[in-house]
Design goal:
alpha/beta
Length: 357
């Protein structure tokens, strides 16, 4: 409901349902394993943009009676220093309201309230009907502690607002895929109008989220200072035409089969590789790829990197690519290598936004 996971309790005696409520504006919640059918309480998992993952026991007779069973320890983290919000942004169609989840330090939000512009990092995905929940992630803290506001855009193509948020005719799939990119750009424009400037706005997406970022910076390169494209699916038309690639034919149910003219023409209108604008100042771009990636082949970010460079050779913003010769689609599975890889991303981002010091 409202793009946020909910837990409902059904009373067999009273024949009614009640939704469990929580204090925070944006959160992620779900039921844990219940081994007893006849019970007076249930256990749920709960976290939010500012609350680390917790297991909570809730009484079924009085849901205000709650006991926190366990909370993930986050060394050095003080929840009271941070805040989160859930907001809606009106899309360009004048009707669709795009949910966004926002997390920030209280110190940064005080600057905003005083009229100061601050750096903002915008994250999105918007494909396969996948939900980007407002959950806790300690790896955002290095950005937030440096004064950035972190925003998750729950754009069409995902599943946060129900199946219609994903499916045709008004979702973000097949011949209405452009809604995904338009929503993201509309959110970016809202952020520039309210909290930040193009010189302080960065964006990020991985895989199909990399497609989102590629299409968005093609549509509005002037909106962003820095873009991170992780293993980006940016050569849509070419990849979807080549059925010898193992995963291509299975992906036709998401993007359409380009052997049909209507899908081919539509893909060509948004495929990042085919829509790079000349004579434009693109944001600084950090692209990553994995040599052993079976989902997005390493040549996709490589081709897009070259295309961006050659289209605008006078662009002073760097266009960089990092290729991991031992990784697949999900980068490092080793915890410490994952943190090292993330450090590369953040180092580039913070350097471009002049927040490295």
């Amino acid at each position: 409901e409202g793009g946020i996971p909910r837990v409902w309790v059904f009373s067999k005696d009273e024949k009614n349902m009640k939704m469990l409520s929580f204090d925070e504006a944006a959160y992620d919640v779900g039921t844990l394993a219940q081994f007893e059918a006849d019970t007076k309480s249930i256990a749920v998992s709960y976290d939010s943009l500012v609350t680390p993952p917790s297991s909570i026991e809730i009484s079924l007779d009085d849901d205000s009676q709650r006991t926190v069973l366990k909370t993930k320890a986050v060394p050095g983290y003080n929840k009271g220093d941070y805040g989160c919000d859930r907001m809606e942004v009106l899309s360009r169609d004048g009707e669709t309201k795009i949910p966004i989840s926002v997390v920030y330090s209280n110190e940064t939000m005080e600057k905003v309230k005083a009229g100061e512009r601050v750096p903002v990092h915008l994250y999105g995905y918007g494909s396969y009907g996948a939900c980007m929940e407002a959950d806790f992630d300690s790896t955002r803290l290095p950005l937030i502690k440096r004064g950035m506001i972190y925003v998750i855009a729950h754009i069409r193509g995902g599943g946060e607002m129900g199946r219609q948020w994903y499916e045709e005719p008004n979702g973000g799939k097949y011949l209405c895929k452009k809604n995904t990119f338009n929503d993201f750009v509309d959110v970016a424009k809202f952020l520039v109008d309210t909290w930040t400037t193009p010189e302080m706005l960065s964006c990020e997406g991985r895989s199909a989220g990399g497609l989102l970022i590629g299409a968005s910076i093609n549509q509005a390169p002037e909106l962003f200072k820095c873009a991170i494209l992780g293993v980006p699916f940016v050569d849509v038309a070419v990849t979807m035409t080549d059925s010898t690639i193992p995963l291509t034919s299975g992906e036709w149910v998401e993007w359409g089969n380009p052997n049909e003219e209507k899908y081919h023409q539509y893909m060509m209108e948004y495929s990042p590789m085919n829509n790079v604008q000349k004579g434009k100042t693109y944001p600084a771009c950090w692209l990553t790829g994995g040599l052993n990636d079976p989902r997005v082949a390493y040549w996709e970010p490589a081709k897009f990197t070259a295309t961006l460079r050659h289209a605008n050779p006078d662009n002073e913003n760097p266009i960089c690519m990092k290729l991991d010769l031992s990784a697949g689609h999900f980068s490092a599975s080793d915890r410490y290598k994952y943190l090292r890889e993330l450090a590369y991303d953040y180092s580039f981002l913070l350097d471009q936004l002049k927040l490295a010091n």
